[in-house]
Amino acid sequence: MAYLRRLPSGRWQATVRLPNGRKTTRTDPLKRIVERWAATVEVDIDRGRWRDPRSGRRLTVGQWRHEWAAQRIAAPATRSKDETHWRVHIAGRFADVPLDLLDRATVKDWIADMHRAGVGAHTIAAAARHLAKMLADAVDAGLLEVNPAARLTVPAPPIRAPFFWTRDEAAALLRELDGPMRTLVDLDLHTGLRIGEVTGLWCEQVDWQAGLLHVNAAQTRFGRERTPKGRRLRTVPIPAHLLDPLLELTSGRPGDAYVFTAARGGPIDDTHFRRRVFLPAVEAARVRRGTVHDMRHTAASWLVADGVDLYRVQALLGHESFRTTMRYAHLAPSAFDAITASWARGARPAHAPEQVTAVGVPDGR
Question: Which residues constitute the domain of residue 188?
């Protein structure tokens, strides 16, 4: 709400408080002029298109994005994904729009148009996050007063139960593999490492005395990157039956050597692994077709079904949010015990007559 006052000079002054806590004012001899100015500023703020005229800059969204991307610090894989979102989903709609004229209604229309065009919910959410981050930094730079893409409502992704292989299916899959590739898949089926984490393992990450793997990097198409997804380090146990195969793979090798390597040496390319190793083994084993990532779902599903609590599964898989781990909650053997026990306590057939015990009545003999 604007604040109006008359100065000792007789002029009128309107003051509007901005979302960042600062104030902007205008003074004029006529009250209606400052009232109209204040109302316009408040509408522009509400629509996310107000800018400080003192900034002296008028950039398009595309020009700001170019400056912003050049200064941004991000992993190569993240930058590549963001470039794709910008090029495919954002630039065509917003690149030539003046940054200070981009309002919330226009951004919401963009979200709705992507949804109507059949763009997936995960892709819409990722593109919206990218735009929101870019505009948030424009606010920090003083080019915008509010972020018109902040706290957007995006379509919810479809809810699907995670796919996982049974233990019999996993055994059949492993029988189609041998050597290091068998060990890699077996390790992933038990620990649930992301494929980049398992292909990016170095010998120094294997702690033989403790029987642990220290997960602190992931292999990407841009090379090996320290601190994998989530920017957190974690430690996972090594299944006892894989200690000897892993020892054989790492013995006598330097700490910065890959545990698992491609056929001709060097790091494993995940696309090559999927096409040349994993999917052919799935086909040969005649098990349900899944993806490489489904090994991660399989590890989590087996553990939860065996009674391991969800918090331990979250720690093993490195989920940032417990909500992600909750996808496996329905597999817990005791998930519905309290419900079924309550039903059992209250169950009584509707046709069953009440049992009445007579007191003090002769038995008729």
Answer: 167-331
| 306 & 175 share domain | yes
Q: Kindly report the pTM of this predicted structure.
A: 0.69
349 Cβ contact partners less than 8 Å away, ≥ 6 residues apart: none
Sorting pLDDT into bands at 50, 70 and 90, what band is 202?
Answer: very high
How far apart CA 117 and CA 158 sit, in angstroms, is 16
Q: Is residue 26 classed as helix, strand or coil in its secondary structure?
A: strand
pLDDT of residue 154: 92
At residue 304, the pLDDT reads 93
- 187 and 270 both lie in a single domain: yes
**What percent of the chain is predicted at pLDDT more than 70?**
91
364: Cα separation from own chain's centroid? 78
User: HSE-up of 365 (CA within 13 Å, CB side)?
Assistant: 1
Q: What is the DSSP letter of 301?
A: H
- Are 42 and 76 contained in the same domain? no
Judgement on whether residues 82 and 171 belong to the same structural domain of the protein: no
Vertex 72 angle, CA 269 and 201, to 5°? 30
Residue 171 sits in the same domain as residue 290: yes
Specify whether the CB–CB gap between 276 and 264 falls below 8 A. no
Domain count, the chain: 3
Cα–Cα distance measured from residue 81 to residue 126, given in angstroms and rounded to the nearest whole number: 9
